[in-house]
From TrEMBL:
<dbReference type="GO" id="GO:0030170">
    <property type="term" value="F:pyridoxal phosphate binding"/>
</dbReference>
<feature type="domain" description="MOSC">
    <location>
        <begin position="22"/>
        <end position="171"/>
    </location>
</feature>
<protein>
    <submittedName>
        <fullName>MOSC domain-containing protein</fullName>
    </submittedName>
</protein>
<dbReference type="GO" id="GO:0030151">
    <property type="term" value="F:molybdenum ion binding"/>
</dbReference>
<dbReference type="InterPro" id="IPR011037">
    <property type="entry name" value="Pyrv_Knase-like_insert_dom_sf"/>
</dbReference>
<dbReference type="InterPro" id="IPR052716">
    <property type="entry name" value="MOSC_domain"/>
</dbReference>
<dbReference type="GO" id="GO:0003824">
    <property type="term" value="F:catalytic activity"/>
</dbReference>
<dbReference type="InterPro" id="IPR005302">
    <property type="entry name" value="MoCF_Sase_C"/>
</dbReference>
<dbReference type="Pfam" id="PF03473">
    <property type="entry name" value="MOSC"/>
</dbReference>
Length: 183
């Protein structure tokens, strides 16, 4: 399925482990690794907290995607968040990333493709970035369970370039669909 309005509005990477990333005119995705030149690229985990827990676990967080609509939502509460501020590699618009099932493939015009692995687990650094923002990124559903809104994580299936303005083609996995969980 193609969501006609779905597009990339910004891309970012950073070679060091900082909270925010550096906006770029384009990024290159490397199959099985992540974003070329990004501190989180690798076959095994690169997020510092996960490395401490088990450095041999597979890296299901090679690429971080956030929907720009989230920035609009938190702006209504007085927060100013821009692309790359929350550490994402790809900022999208026109695609509700949070409702996609696990295994959804997002393909870009270059042929680059990522497979969604799960929800980003928001961390305490969010409140260090802007006090109070963390509670806006974690809500609760009708059952009282946490709802994570800080974007999705993915692995790179096919390498290639991604740039602002790129359309996003969405391919859902076979049913039954598995909802996203924290990774």
């Amino acid at each position: 399925m193609t969501i006609h309005q779905a597009e990339v509005i910004a891309v970012a990477r950073d070679s060091t482990h900082r909270f925010s990333k550096m906006p770029q005119p384009g990024i290159t995705l490397l199959a099985g690794l992540g974003v070329e030149g990004d501190a989180h690229a690798g076959v095994t985990v690169r997020h510092r907290s996960r490395v401490r827990a088990d450095p041999a676990q597979p890296n299901l967080r090679q690429v971080h995607l956030i929907h720009a609509e989230l920035f609009d939502q938190v702006a209504a509460d007085g927060f100013r968040v821009h692309p790359a501020d929350l550490g994402e590699n790809v900022t999208t618009r026109g695609l509700d990333l949070l409702v996609l099932p696990r295994g959804t493939r997002l393909t870009f015009p270059s042929g680059a493709a990522v497979e969604v692995t799960g929800l980003r687990n928001p961390c305490a650094q969010i409140d260090a970035f802007q006090p109070g923002l963390m509670r806006r990124l974690i809500g609760t559903d009708e059952a009282g369970d946490p709802v994570f809104r800080a974007g999705v994580m993915a692995v790179v299936v096919t390498g290639g370039d991604v740039a602002p303005g790129d359309a996003i083609h969405v391919t859902l996995p076979p049913e039954p669909h598995e909802p996203l969980r924290r990774v």
